[in-house]
């Protein structure tokens, strides 16, 4: 089964942890999102971001999604590794926790941002 849909960023709180040389920095962010598509629910995501001098970023972090998949309540934890380049965010992720059923554990997928704080997600069972 293919898991596809979109999520909408509802809130983004970011703070600089350390300013570095040449206008680079390390930041942390807490993001709240709303999911639609195969996953219906919401998530909290914690990212650590490194911004290069051109404003692009590399990030890693964890996302906890609480919602419903095919009428079954789930909580998924995703580990992200991504980039923000020229205003477009994308991430490869792996599911590191799946409750109540573990059959999604270890599945990988990706998201790619679109406009106005939305992104498309996909992974396969």
Principal-axes geometry comes out as: elongated
End-to-end distance? 5 Å
What is the helix content?
under 10%
User: What's the tally of helices?
Assistant: 0
Number of strands: 8
Question: Strand-residue fraction?
Answer: over 45%
Task: Tell me the series of helices and strands, N- to C-terminal.
Answer: EEEEEEEE
Our Rg estimate from Cα atoms comes to 15 Å
Helix/strand-derived category reads: mainly beta
Oligomer: single chain
Q: Largest beta sheet, briefly?
A: 8 strands, antiparallel, barrel
- Averaged pLDDT, please? 96
What are the segments in which pLDDT stays under 50 over at least 5 consecutive residues?
A: none
Strand order of the largest sheet: 1-2-3-4-5-6-7-8
Question: What would you note in describing this structure?
Answer:
The chain is mainly beta and 125 residues long. 0% of the residues lie in helices and 77% in strands. It contains no helices and eight strands. Strands 1-2-3-4-5-6-7-8 form an eight-stranded antiparallel β-barrel. It is elongated.
Structural topology:
Layout lengths: L1 E18 L5 E13 L1 E13 L5 E13 L2 E14 L2 E12 L8 E6 L4 E7 L1
Antiparallel strand pairs: 1-2, 1-8, 2-3, 3-4, 4-5, 5-6, 6-7, 7-8
